[in-house]
Amino acid sequence: MRNLSVMIAGVGGQGTLLTSRVIGAAAIKAGYDVKMSEVHGMSQRGGSVITYVRIGSDVKSPAIEKGEADILLCFEKLEALRWLDYANKDGTIIINDQKIDPMPVITGKAKYPENIVQNIKARFKNVYTIDALDTAKRLGNIKVLNIIMVGLLAKSTGIPADTWREAIRETVKEKFVELNLKAFEEGYKIAGCMLELSN
């Protein structure tokens, strides 16, 4: 695998930080150098939470500049739009097709933008969307939304699926491991279908 810069964008409570730890653990198990940086917004109030994960043979810094993210993993549509400038124009953008109103929208000071996904697809060629919330509901716990997204991302990394499974076992609390493994399998399967359709 070449050097890979992954930016995870979501809101507080969606599990972005656990996601970065699972990605980092999988990459280390696969023999790569990893640097991570967590940028907290108002995470306790549903504000933006951004995480950078850089993977390679010799990574000097976790920082990802505008236009450098090879994968932009977005847990919410507006967060995808907010951080879009960080995506490499030839990179992959994975979006959970979910709307969570930020505080300015809730208070009436702003409107939630329309046609976010369509506008992103007009600018970037490798854009994939999933209703991860609906999938998580089917599995019985909306908190596994993040690991469903990890499953989608895993297909784009070249790191074997078993390595991801080991990382989940070691990173997630023991009582939630089996549920999270099911969530990973769902995301991984959906990613495979998406890649087949795009070829």
Structural class: alpha/beta
For the record, the count of structural domains works out to 1
Q: How much strand content do the residues show?
A: 15-25%
Order of helices and strands: EHEEEHEHHEHHHH
CATH classification class:
Alpha Beta
Radius of gyration: 16 Å
Low-confidence stretches: none
CATH topology: Pyruvate-ferredoxin Oxidoreductase, domain 3
CATH hierarchy: architecture: 3-Layer(aba) Sandwich
The whole-number mean of residue pLDDT values reads: 90
Helix-residue proportion: 40-55%
In CATH terms, the superfamily is Pyruvate-ferredoxin oxidoreductase, PFOR, domain III
Number of helical elements: 8
Adjacency order of strands in the biggest sheet? 2-3-1-4-5-6
Tell me, briefly, the overall form.
globular
How would you describe the overall organization of this protein?
α1 (16-29) packs across α7 (161-171) and α7 packs antiparallel against α8. The protein is of the alpha/beta class. A six-stranded mixed beta sheet has the order 2-3-1-4-5-6, sandwiched between helices. The chain is built from eight helices and six strands; from the N terminus they run βαβββαβααβαααα. The protein has one domain (4-198): Pyruvate-ferredoxin Oxidoreductase, domain 3, CATH 3.40.920. The two termini are 21 Å apart. It has helices at 16-29, 77-82, 103-106, 116-123, 132-139, 145-154, 161-171, 177-198, and strands at 4-11, 33-40, 48-56, 69-74, 87-96, 127-130.
